[in-house]
Structure formats: structure tokens, C-alpha cells
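Researcher: Please predict.
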Amino acid sequence: MTPRRLARGLAAATAAIAAAVVGAAVLDRALPPPLERAAVVSTVVLDREGRPLRAFPVADGRWRLQIDLDGVDPAFVDAVVAIEDQRFFTHGGVDVAALGRAAFTSARAGRIVSGGSTITMQTARLLEPRPRTFGSKAIEILRAWQIERRLTKAEILETYLTLAPYGGNLEGARAASWAYFGREPSRLTPDQIALLVALPQAPEARRPDLRPDAARAARDRILDRLVAEGRLAPDRAADAAQEDPPGRRAFPVRAWHASAEARRRAAGPGDVRSTLDAALQAEMEALADAAVEHDPSVQAAILVVDTGTRAVRAAVGSAGRDRPGGWLDLTDRARSPGSTLKPLIY
């Protein structure tokens, strides 16, 4: 090949690469990944110390509580990465080796046996659910590249752990921790970690509240893998395997009226810090219940205010929503001057 032809070939190749890069950039800008879905989360009203008072589901009735990695047990995050995507922190969204291995095994079986999906690719699928086909896999690869350009690795993990399915109307590890363990996922036992890792792989088939045997088997397989990875001592795994799978618990429902007002005033969804004190709120709700227990026609409301700061520390809008007027917040209803003066004179 003459130098002139070589130069022309190099110029053409360079132009083609540049056109491809420009085209990809244009498409990336024109068709960005729908990251806004991750922002549609449940509102959780907290007391002044950060303790949850009441959680609200999203519009479709799902519990989707926003995850902040600072509030999640690091051992759980390590286990998720170890099981789902060991090279998560080093790849750019796609693990070529894992994808090639998955393609080979799937082609040999004539169906998708293992997806080879990275956490970023799974996040793309959660943002845009599609049937599991080879075409969908190609779209997930492109979306994973786009997501990696926009989010940090920590943000990708937070998005994944906020959207991952955990059975029924539960989405995200934080919602699952509240529903199954009754608390935040800030500190988890080995059996709890293994269960939370196992559930998104088959959330309906492994629901601990409906299919405890399947949940136990899946959890124990994760425990075995964590031992094989050197992330859990064998004796701790053996102890964890003795624990029974949990049932389903209710979400916190303290300060029914006040938490609804705090949610209304909030700038957006997510966690909302109030001035209430959870312990005092529980005490006042019990006091209101006791005050009306002998007369089903009576209502009661209690408002406790810090006179130094004027901060509301407890607010009981009614003694029960099953009583007359119970859905009304009686702490902010208009009163006659006489009724207002009575407690002060007393």
C-alpha cells in the first residue's frame, strides 16, 4: 500500500470513529436513561432524632424507601457486590468476561440461563422494565454505559438498592428491612444480610412471609457463597442458618395527623425531619387512648409544645380514627374562647 493510500485509509477510519463518537453523544443526549424514576420514593416522616414515625407508600401503593449508603450496613453492601457483581468498582458498566460467559452458556442451552448482568445493567432494567430477551440485554448494555457517565458508583448502588424488588409491594432494601425485620438496615445480622441478597433474584418465589422454605434455602445458599468468598466465618454462617425466616411487619404509623401535615409541607419525597419526639408521641397516644376507652362517643386530642422554642414535641390529632371525628386533626380545629380558657384556668 502506498503512503498516499495509507494516509487516506487512516483519515477515513479517523472520520468514521469521530462520526460514531459524535453520533453516540447525540443519542446519549437525546435519549437519556430515565433516572427520574429513582426519585419517586416513599416519604418517611422522622422525629427530631431521626427515628421513623410514619411511612407513606408511593402512588401505586408500593413501599419504595430511598437508600443512603451511609445508613446501610457495610457488610450488606459488600455481600451484594460479592454475589451480584464482583468487578463492579472496576468496570464501566459492563463486565465483558461475565457477559461472554453468560452468552456462551445461554447459547448452548438455547435459552437465557444466566444474564451476566452487572449491577449497573440491573439498575437499567429496574428503571426500564422489559422482557428478558437478547434485544433487551443490548438495550441494558447501552443504558449501563449512559448511567455510568452520569452517576458515581455509590449513586448507582443507592439507585439499585432503592429499586430492587423484594416481593409483593416492597421495593428496595430499606423497605424490605422494615417489612421483614422492623428496623433500618444500618446493622444487620448474617442471616438478614443473606436474605436481603437472595430475595431480588426471585422475589416472589422466595418471599419469607409466604414461602419460608424457599426463602430459607435461598438464604442458606448465599451464606455458603459468602463463606466460600471468605466474607463470613463458617461458624457464624452455621448459626445464621438456624434462624427462621421472618414474617411481614407493618410500617411505623405514629403521629397519624401530624406526619401527614409534615409530608404536605415537605419540599419533596424522601425523609422528612420533624420536631416531634417519638417516645413522647407514643406516650401521648397511649394517654389519649386511656382517656376515652370507657366512652366510644368521646374524642381526645393532645398537643405538647416546648415553651422555650415553640417546637411541637407531640401531636395527637384524635384518640382513634374509628371514633366519631377521628379522621379530623382536632389539634388545629377552631375553639370558642371559653373552651380555650378552660384548660388554662384549670
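Model: The first helix runs from residue 3 to 30.
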